[in-house]
Design brief:
2 copies of one chain form a homodimer. By secondary structure, chain A is mainly α. In chain A, 83% of the residues lie in helices and 1% in strands.
Chain lengths: 721, 721
């Protein structure tokens, strides 16, 4: 397999480069040395160290606790996978599927951990660099931190998957690759399960702390969110690292693993691609690898070629990254398509046989990439303070919190329109040209700029935290102002990233769902497989499936509310026991650890029920009602999940930026921080927190995970009937 | 046709009884005479007359303006129907369909008008009777007002439909009844179109005024919602009459007309039922007529057999109505099923031929009726202050508006679970037993207690208004307290009614959708009709269809916000021009008419876009993309519409009752009216207004209307391909 090793080398080099970059991010000490005596007093530096250590310890502790839960889950679930699949197929398949599952889970855990470490290291570096003149030093620090994570995760994901494929290919003959790919789909399942717990647990953690810290101001007058006297503030900062950074990484890693697995499963069922050999079958991986290289080239644009010299360039720089990556992906895809895909080939589609060309494959991948960009930019339009939707939201705050909420909800609903049209268009084009293989490739294409997306996603919380640290370390107000500007741009960019995440999740779940249908078709040996809407069982489960996102959101939203209220109670209690804390010039420090512990406990406790819902729903449906019911469940979940996820994320993002706009005091008639208009905006922001960071993005995983569970257990569902 | 006239007589008697009851509701003068000098001073009585006249004039003016828009629409759309159907079939069918459409529209307009008149008459009567000792006089007045509307509408609907069928049956041979039923489905379309404009226009009117009046307190300190010095207060009261009463009537009339039409269309395609003759084909009408009689009997329970003697009996009395009606419906259905349905008959289903029995038909109808009750009671559980969901919501107000909103949204999401399981179960059972005929019958069964449902729906706003009038006429505080108790029970009962409305809408749209598929099957002469999910066009439109409810809600929510802000600006302006208005003991009266005009203009302006969306979406999809796309659009709209409608209605209902609970001051630690906790609850209530009264319930009509438009134009869609 000479191709195999030749593909391996550039991957290795990329990873090496990434880890070298990671190695140089030794954070706090280095920067501190470079700044010694320049901008910060000794006392400020001591405070910085204190804060840094508290955040670092809190994040470590939470991840350790969370991962020990995950480990238990992985062990139990891999045994279940082994047993059920061994029963319905054979023990080798069972073992290899379980092994892939464990590998996927471990990779996801590693991705999350790397993300968190990088973020924690870089927060304080960004704060320190924000004291230097200009925006370039701090922007570059935060951006580079983001890219370390982006490249580490995408590289790691592709590497582990590729090695797994290489090793497995020793056990399977070429005409059995379809079985091999099924085993490999366990990798996607592993990645996705951990992502679920990460998204839900991390999401509850971060938002419980965030909402709790926000609300403290309500209960104890004059204690803002990031005030060092606020006991919840360290938990809030820990949350940004474990919730926002680590989780987005795990989620997108899951999407990447799943879309690739879906494409591989379908490719292995296409004789013409099999005949072409390893390269053609592994084409989805080639696209992802190409994407990493393109992202790497583009990343120098923001830091070196066109650096951020002023505030209004920040958002532009981030946006340019996404646009340029996508534009470069088009010719790059063209080249690799020509290299690896046969000129024409037959696809044995889900309900018809069709003939596809190189050109068709190219169009599928590119429609995903370009469509993703348009979805991302739409998300930006609805959540950036530059455009009319958020401006209208700001105006609505003048008549109070209620109109702000009404306008915000309506903004979120409206923001669904364009992305859904784009998704429908991509699905129509890709499905028509290359059947479900096309849909899977469109998903892979949309995740082509994964590394850039992750960079931007990690950048945001790093800046947010840098600001929090600046406030806690009582640095000069200008530092906070600067990190706020970085953060505002990051918020918008994060919304763009969420757009990508949701769009790709929809495509991925459709592709996985398709792979599941094809699997059942193979198992049942019926040539024509129709998934009919007008069947009693299917229609009943269509309704139930489209209800699941609501059930899931109800649980996660309420968990945040509940945990936040526990947090507020603890804070109140601390202030009552130690009134000295309220003294603005006092030196008494609150007990941060208790708040960290509350968030940790709440997150771990509350993530179990929604996790069980997502994992058990398809399994129980498949076991008790059969595959027709599963068809309905998956379709329904996908259809309503997409809409709810997009609207929740955008509503939350818009509220956040609306508040930031008022705080920036650009329009003095709004009164700035502390005014009634600002208070109305804070209500929106607080409501938006769980929407945009807990429930909304978790729905991505709900859609994908239900589909991949069905795929992995397809033969089992069929066998027990 | 001897059966025909014998069925006609009881209907006529029922209607006569109803109109006699209506005739005796001559409102204000009579009650005034009965109370002269007893409880109210001359000045109070003068104020009452003033308020009554202002509300009456405002409501008349709005309905006249709205109906003139509707008239234009009806004329244009009936011409379109005539032309398109004449082109694809023949001019007789075109003419009769257009005629049915006009009849449906006129009946709906008449229903809305009757509802409004009854409500306006009865508001002030209820206020006056609330001055008498005990709860019985005022409860009975409001309840009887509701039942006048309930019986008038359900009687009128069934009468016009039956007469239409009788007349049409002169033009069609028995083996052509299928064509006749298609013409008659225009009746459902007419009813539904007017309901759409009513729901949207009326919904925007009432909530613009309500939110506007609420917000005045925010802008001008110390002017509560119902203060006579609040210029928006009359508009608010007019809104309750035209928005809440008239609209619910039109909506449920639409559901009734459509479910009956769907069942008739399918019945006429079933040779065994046709062979049995008129009675078997008209069985759906028989069920509805039976329902009216059962409701009539039950209505004496609340007013005579088990009257409301204390406050805590109010909610019980309303709930008992629904439960007893449903219980009595079971044996009644059994009797009529045995009378009209053959022992066994063949159904030529949408994708199979199956054999059904009398028993099966009975189960379908009863599953709808009982399922509706369970859905209604679930709604009550989530929105009544008696149970833990609202109690938790009250607690969440302690930490401010943000937690209230988070908890409220999560409550709404959660409230979807049980109703969707019930709906899925009903669909599974009915679909399995009698194919789509079963689903249509389940919808008819769920609407069996239509008259009771309407009674309770109209009761709520009558009480709400009675309270508003009491405040404006500056009556004793106890009067307001009494009407508040009546209103709180009414709110919960209204939520139950909304549950029925949404549940039946889901079944109706599925039945209509099924009738559409069958229609296409007949037109295309292909025996096997499958609606496949995994087709490029269908899946793309599944996504688009499930996006439409969001698009629609975005428009309606924002319209309310916008109109409310115009209202607040006007109020501010009035207070600035005439500061004397602010004097609490002054006699200056604000210019109520300008506020009424603002609401009217906004409602008419803003109802056009969402109306066009709903009507044009299926037509454009059918014309440009064909029937496979329409399948996707309808399924998607139905799936996500149900969820969104239920969650919106329940969230809004719960917030409303949460606020009322705090205002009732049962728990002094909440601080009652004016406290910070109360302010947090008011934010929730204001946000809930458009959710529960504009967007949520309009989604019912979106689902049904898209399906019936597709059904009416089915042949046209097929012909232009």
């Amino acid at each position: 397999m000479p191709e195999a090793t030749s593909m391996f080398r550039p991957l290795y080099n990329i990873l090496r480069f990434i880890f070298l970059r990671l190695g140089s991010t030794n954070g706090y000490e280095e920067e501190r040395a470079s700044l010694k005596g320049k901008h910060s007093s000794r006392k400020e530096m001591e405070l910085l160290r204190e804060v840094y250590e508290a955040i670092s310890a809190g994040a470590e502790a939470f991840l350790r606790a969370e991962y020990s839960y995950c480990a238990v889950f992985v062990v139990i679930f891999s045994v279940i996978i082994y047993m059920l699949i061994s029963w319905s197929q054979d023990t080798t398949i069972g073992f290899l599927t379980a092994l892939s599952f464990v590998l996927g889970a471990i990779t996801s855990i590693a991705s999350g951990y790397i993300g968190m470490r990088v973020a924690v290291y870089s927060n304080v570096r960004t704060t320190i660099n924000a004291q230097k003149p200009g925006y370039m030093p701090c922007f570059n620090t935060a951006f580079r931190a983001g890219s370390v994570m982006g490249f580490a995760l995408s590289g790691l994901g592709i590497l582990v998957l590729y090695v797994t494929l290489l090793v497995f290919s020793q056990y399977f003959e070429q005409d059995n690759w379809i079985l091999m790919m099924e085993c490999v789909s366990g990798y996607g399942l592993g990645g996705s399960s951990i992502a679920l717990f990460g998204r839900v647990g991390g999401g509850i953690y971060t938002k419980a702390a965030d909402v709790g810290a926000d609300l403290v101001g309500k209960v104890v007058h004059g204690i803002p969110e990031d005030d060092p006297r606020n006991p919840a503030t360290i938990a809030d900062n820990v949350g940004d690292n474990v919730g926002d950074v680590a989780r987005m990484g795990a989620d997108l890693f899951g999407s990447f693993a799943e879309s690739t697995c879906a494409a591989l499963v379908i490719a292995a069922q296409t004789p013409d691609l099999l005949a072409q050999g390893w390269g053609a079958v592994c084409f989805p991986l080639v696209v992802s690898a190409t994407g990493i290289i393109v992202c790497l080239l583009t990343s120098f644009l923001a830091t070196n070629i066109y650096p951020v010299t002023s505030e209004n360039r920040i958002e532009l720089a981030l946006r340019l990254q996404l646009i340029v990556t996508t534009l470069l992906l088009v010719p790059a895809t063209y080249v690799v398509t020509n290299m690896f895909i046969p000129a024409t080939f037959q696809i044995d589609g889900v309900s018809r046989v069709l003939s596809a060309t190189q050109q068709d494959v190219f169009i599928c991948v590119v429609s995903g990439a370009v469509g993703g960009l348009i979805i991302g930019l739409t998300t930006e339009y609805y959540t950036s303070k530059e455009y009319s939707p958020v401006k209208e939201l700001v105006e609505s705050c003048r008549t109070g919190a209620a109109t702000n909420i009404i306008y915000g909800l309506s903004l979120g609903y409206k923001s669904v329109i364009v992305p859904v049209f784009i998704l429908a268009f991509i699905i129509y084009v890709a499905f028509s040209l290359c059947d479900l293989y096309g849909v899977a490739l469109a998903a892979v294409g949309m995740l082509g700029n994964l590394a850039t997306g992750l960079t931007i996603d990690a950048y945001g919380p790093v800046c947010d935290n840098a600001g929090g640290i600046a406030e806690m370390a009582e640095l000069h107000k200008d530092v906070r102002k600067k990190t706020d500007a970085l953060d505002a741009a990051g918020n918008t960019a994060a919304a763009v990233g969420k757009g990508f995440a949701i769009g790709s999740a929809a495509l991925v779940s459709l592709a996985l769902y398709g792979a599941f249908v094809v699997r059942i078709k193979v198992a049942s040996k019926i040539a024509e497989t129709n998934v009919e809407i007008l069947q009693p069982l299917t229609f009943a489960f269509l309704l139930i499936g489209s209800m699941l996102p609501y059930w899931f959101s109800a649980m996660t939203m309420k968990s945040v509310g509940k945990a936040a209220m526990e947090m507020v109670a603890e804070v109140k209690d601390q202030f009552e026991r130690n009134p000295e804390l309220l003294n603005p010039v006092g030196t008494a420090r609150p007990d941060y650890d208790r708040c960290v512990a509350i968030s940790t406990k709440a997150a771990l406790r509350e993530m179990i029920a929604p996790g069980a819902l997502v994992i058990l729903a398809p399994i129980l449906t498949g076991v008790f009602f059969g595959v027709n019911a599963v068809y309905g469940l998956l379709t329904g979940g996908l259809l309503s999940g997409v809409q709810l996820a997009i609207s929740m994320s955008n509503t939350g993002g818009a509220w956040d930026n609306c508040k930031k706009y008022i705080e920036a005091n650009v329009d003095p008639s709004l009164g700035g921080k502390g005014s009634d208009i600002h208070k109305a905006a804070v209500v929106g922001d607080t409501v938006g927190d769980p929407l945009k960071d807990t429930s909304g993005p978790s729905l991505n995983i709900l859609m994908k995970l239900m589909a991949i569970i069905s795929l992995v257990f397809a033969d089992f569902f069929f066998a027990i009937k």
